[in-house]
Amino acid sequence: MHIELREIRKHFGSVKANDGISFTLEEGRIYGLLGENGAGKSTLMKILSGYQPPDSGEILINGKPKQFASPAEALNNGVGMLYQDPLDFPPFRIVENYLLGKDGRAWLDYRAAEAELQGLAARYGFDIDLHAYVDSLSLGERQQLELIRLLAGGAQLLILDEPTTGISAEQQEKLFQSIHQLASEEGKTVVLVSHKLHEVQQLCAHAFVLRRGKLVGEADVPCSNEKLVELMFEQVPVRSARPESQLGEPLVEIRDLTISTYRLALKNINLTLRRGEIFGLAGLQGSGQELLMQAVAGLVKPESGVITLKGRNVTGRSYHQMQAAGVGYVAAGRLEEGLVAGLTLTEHVVLAQPQYGFLVDWDRAKEETDARIRRYQIIGTPQTRAAELSGGNQQRLLFGLLKEPLELLLLEHPTRGLDLRSTDYIWELLYRRREAGTAILFMSADLDEIIERSDRIAVFSGGLMSRVVEAGKTSVEELGHLIGGQA
Amino acid sequence: MILQATPLMIAVTGETITERSGIVNLSLDGSMLMAAMTGFVVGLKTDSVWLGFLAAAAVGALFALIVAFGSIRLRQSQVAIGFVLTLLGDDLSAFLGQNYTRIPGPVIKRMGIPVLEEIPFVGPIFFDQDITVYLTYLLVALTWFFLFKTQAGLKVRAVGERPEAAFARGVNVDYVRYLYAIIGGALVGISGVVYSFNVKLGWSEGHTRGFGWIALAIVIFGGWSPIRGALGAILFGATKALATYLQRAFPQVSVVAFNAIPWVLMIAVLLMVSSNFTERLVIYMPRRIQRPIRRLLRVGPPMALGISFGDD
Amino acid sequence: MNLRGWIARAWPAVPILAALLFTTILLVMFGASPIESLEAMIRGAFGDQSKTLSVIAFWIPLLLSSTGLLVTFTAGLWNIGIEGQIVMGAIAASWVALNLEAPSFILIALEIIAAMAAGGLWAGLTAVLKTRGRVHEIFGGLALNNIAIIFTNYLISGPWQPPEGGTFRGTQPFQAAALLPRYANSRFSPLSLVLLVIAFAMVVVALRGTFWGLKLKALGKNLRSAFLLGVSSEREVILAMLFCGALAGMGGAVRVLSWFDSLRQSISGGIGFLALLVVMLASYRILWVPLIAFFFSVVLNGSITLQLRTQLHSSLGGILTGVMVLFVLLFGDANKLRIFGKKKSHE
Q1: Residue B218 distance to chain A (closest CA, Å)
Q2: What is the pLDDT of residues A208-239, one digit of tens each?
Q3: With an 8 Å Cβ cutoff, are C221 and A343 in contact?
Q4: Which residues of C touch chain A, with CB atoms under 8 Å apart?
Q5: C225, A401: Cβ pair inside 8 Å?
Q6: The CATH number, out of the four listed (3.40.50.300, 3.90.230.10, 2.70.98.90, 3.30.428.10), of the domain defined by the range A250-483
Q7: Which residues in chain B have Cβ-Cβ distances shorter than 8 Å to C334?
Q8: Is the ipTM above a cut-off of 0.95?
Q9: Is pTM, for the whole model, over 0.90?
């Protein structure tokens, strides 16, 4: 099956997620699709797999243009996508999950389905208990099932979205074997969306690299990692020296921290943060940085290990307790996880302050809000509602709500979606806090920001933390390698 | 006893279907009242029981349609709309039916099933009833078969559990929700008129009041399964019948206490389902029976119940 | 202002007018004249002093409940269990009335306190089921409503039955000292009006002027953000329900001690559910609630006379109010109807 994408475009608001992407896929080959967060990979694949329509452009299958109204239609045309979180039905039995939407038959033939499943599982070496319910399976097993379902549904093109995140090493091997089998023995086309360079090198024959919505290059693989990294991350001139600051004594110590969730396991993290230090966490989404920060903030309970703050053991303390201990946390979703859309600035300021008495002194609150508006240069009035502020001003508001002083400030993507001026201003505010002795731990998808602003950096990839590097001595390339999973 | 439980069984089955597709139709009490009245009046005027059934079904479907439309198209709260409709159904039925109270109307006759009604003890209870009862047995069985053995039923359940995944499999989520809300609503409507023709003959103000709420409770403690729901309805009917018997056995406990049982059971089931209390217990049991017990305890509500699909 | 602006301004009146139209059509269908019916309803509400006082007496517990609901709605809760809270308040007040002997003002004080405590705790039970047992407050509330009603029936037919034998109508009448002092042989008790004013003022202050009210507002709008800003949802949910239950319980006491003189089978008169409608129709705006509640009281009480005068069933009043709420819910929000063109496509 020959697939061609022509000039695919898709925008969300003013953001061009896909800006005129074209390439072709030949049958029997394994392709890699690489790119940073926000490069447009998942948008493109969602379009190809039928989950959403493109704004313009064409998909041609064997020369004929096709439009997919839903993933089911795409599957009928031979295109199937395996999501990172498989779109299956946890409360169903495995057989039921397999049977849904499979064919036009009215009655469900459980026995035939089970036999089919058995056969397919055997063919690819998957070992699954077919009588179980979907929600009792591990992520890797659910993936295997979904793969089987897609193949049984006639997929000739398989798109795998970061398939090795959250599965065991064994399952990963199995997966790779199956992918090889599918491509070489069965002539299927596979697209592997991944940020792990070594996997792409191992499996793929050809790689496409996206950056900021465009296809910036392709390469036959295996090739040198440098070449791929160069394509993925823009080259930036080395920054001039930035203000030296005094680093204080150790403030936060993290020892052998292990956190497990359903999809990710962070093991044996060791980290020390000093007063006045800015520590950057790099890595693609879902690699573990958020989890680490949430654990330190008290939002997630670690399985084992110790976190100490100012010498006191604070492991497992609740979020509100950590707040009281001087830890501030700013989440990435400004309106989802930080501000309340319908409340005014004044109301936010009141909420963020310690309660002094029973009744709110609205006059005093308004004065305080005015002061903060001035101090943080927020474009808005005390009566403006949070939802009416622009992104940059929302972020300033979030900062303006933080207590002063803080021991530790945790930030998820502090400047995401902000223009240059707002970004600079936010960092001004952070530098001021740093001077006051606050330790700052932040994560960002922008490697330039990480290098420019941090004192030290650690990179997360697939639940593993790299060695710690000094920001002044590293480069975008090195970080890119670390993200790619190489030590 | 079975006769009493029949309309409840129908309503519970109908609402189970609707909730399985993800829509909560809180208007049951009101729509039953309205359907009972309408069905009775139509049956009276046309002297046809079956036209009465049809009218009642239409009314029930209409109520459900309003809830579904309000939720899917207008993105309003299913709870709010269903709740208002409950109260409205009560008032509207009282008003529109005011000239028809306490008038005798069509009745459905009994009809025993030849061999089955000879079975000792069980026979006369279950098989010497009228045709609606037999049809209800059939309904429950068909619904169970539909939900668990057909592709269409699987789709309904999928829409109620995870609409975005159902969409990915090619299911038209909105269409499914409308369709099965209407079907479920029609069944609820029929259950109302069965009262008028069968159980509590005729019509009067507030004729079936309260039964709609009880049906909602039974759907929950029946674990959103048609057969368990039907058993729940029978159990409810049984408790009423047994109440007098139990009263003699336990004279110190008042009869009215037994009325509270369905509600206590409902809370108990919800507690069991929503918290992980049972999970903690199950872990202590020997491995071999863990799976069958887990299977037994699978009584969770559809995951997407009450949530609008495609919310921004 | 262009046409669009005019339509946007005037839109809120559309569902109300539509509801009036609907009800008028029903009227006419049954052979009554709209003018006559309107006149009968107004006369039923304000015709003489006793009727007007009845309207006020019905309004008071209705407004007490509605005010309480404002608190729970602010916190994002659907307190359908309010009926049960009213009933439990009435039961508690009845207990005091039937079992204690004291001078009137002490009795009344105890009754009110007992009623508030009972209503509050009943609501608290629903709250705990929600926070600890994760049972949605709608189902918990429904169940507790029915249990409260069943309990009432038990008391009426059993331990508290009147000396001449149990009917299902009501308990034995309370001692005179236990009842709220009434004005001019009506069902209106000025004391209840005082309580109402205090309660309403407290709620207004609480919601608009306290930290707690602000926390509730944040919770109701965005649970996650509120949490991250430091608001503990469990505590606030329970407190909000306790507050509402207490007010509802107070309403129950007013019902049983001034509208009636004993505990009756449907002691709440459906006021709990009506209160939910009132708040919905008022679009959750605090200052509209007393007006809308009064409107409800006028219509519902006036409908009784309507039935006497025009042979129209008194449920017409309930139909009018119900349809208003329904229409407002369905098409009161012009934005949601996409009258002004399609919304941006979602993603």
Answers
A1: 21
A2: 998 888 888 888 878 877 777 777 776 554 44
A3: yes
A4: 205, 209-212, 214-215, 217-218, 221-222, 224-232, 347
A5: no
A6: 3.40.50.300
A7: none
A8: no
A9: no
